[in-house]
Amino acid sequence: MKIAIDGPAGAGKSTIARIVAAELGCLYLDTGAMYRALTYEALRRRLDLSDEKALAALAAAMDLRLVPGRRGRAPRVYVGGREITRDIRSPEVSHRVSQVASHAKVREAMVRRQRAIASQGSVVMDGRDIGTTVLPEADLKIFLQASVKERAKRRSRELRRQGHKVRLRELVHQIAQRDEADSERAASPLTKAPDAVELDTTEMSVRQVVQTILELLNRGDGNV
Ligand code: DC
């Protein structure tokens, strides 16, 4: 079974995808973490972030591992054996990742890696282009939405928990900017697949969203 969960930054994708995967006993793949890990590594190597060829080569070759987190925790991320789980959430990486993810060749390399992982078994994958590009044949496609303000509040809680200092107003601005960059890039922009089910989570609890997705699966909505 393949489940695609797409949507803008802070719509709740990773929280929801992680719980749905745990309930179904299948793998959870956070594709945003893959783009973040690439961005982190590119910054560390002082690569030029407009150098599509160099970034695509790094995306294809880097020793990237995502290890499922225990008891509903976020997956741990390693590059070259070094853990960078926390580093990939830094404001610097968040600020630069859209630029890295905008390159068509980078996306091709990432999509290849993501499909290889999906071919190993059942998976819940979250990102921006899962339903449209990575897994167009997914059994169920969900597009999560929420207001910019609500998404900024959620990101702020998440970042504070991780020890980062944040201002809500700045986050609203950054999220709106990232939405625009992710939606307007030429290479597989953030768009809802025509056969995706859209859920606005602004007023919904995590449990309600998970329950709705599990009901859609049970009812055989989507293509299941
Ligand atoms: O979900 P996130 O905020 O961790 O994603 C980080 C960035 O990566 C986001 O700005 C867009 C990009 N991304 C993408 O372009 N395609 C994906 N499948 C996942 C993320």
List the helices and strands and how they pair.
Layout: E1 2-6, H1 13-24, E2 27-30, H2 31-44, H3 52-61, E3 64-67, E4 76-79, E5 82-83, H4 91-101, H5 104-118, E6 123-127, H6 130-134, E7 140-145, H7 148-161, H8 168-184, E8 197-200, H9 206-219
Parallel strand pairs: 1-6, 1-7, 2-6, 7-8
Antiparallel strand pairs: 3-4, 4-5
Helix pairs in contact: 1-9, 2-4, 3-5, 4-8, 7-8
The structure holds 2'-deoxycytidine-5'-monophosphate (DC).
2'-deoxycytidine-5'-monophosphate (DC) binds next to α2, α4 and α8.
- CATH architecture title: 3-Layer(aba) Sandwich
The 3D shape can be described as globular
Mean pLDDT: 93
Structural class: alpha/beta
- What does the oligomeric state look like here? single chain
What is the name of the CATH superfamily?
Answer: P-loop containing nucleotide triphosphate hydrolases
Briefly summarize what is shown.
With 224 residues, the protein is of the alpha/beta class.
How would you explain this protein's 3D organization?
The chain has helices at 13-24, 31-44, 52-61, 91-101, 104-118, 130-134, 148-161, 168-184, 206-219, and strands at 2-6, 27-30, 64-67, 76-79, 82-83, 123-127, 140-145, 197-200. By secondary structure, it is an alpha/beta fold. The protein has a single domain, classed as 3-Layer(aba) Sandwich (Rossmann fold), CATH 3.40.50. The strands form two sheets. It has a five-stranded parallel sheet, sandwiched between helices. A hairpin with an 8-residue loop joins strand 3 and strand 4 (76-79). Helix 2 crosses helix 4 (91-101) and helix 3 runs parallel beside helix 5. It is globular, with a radius of gyration of 16 Å. The structure holds 2'-deoxycytidine-5'-monophosphate. 2'-deoxycytidine-5'-monophosphate binds at residues 9, 31-32, 35-36, 97-98, 101, 127-129, 178, 182.
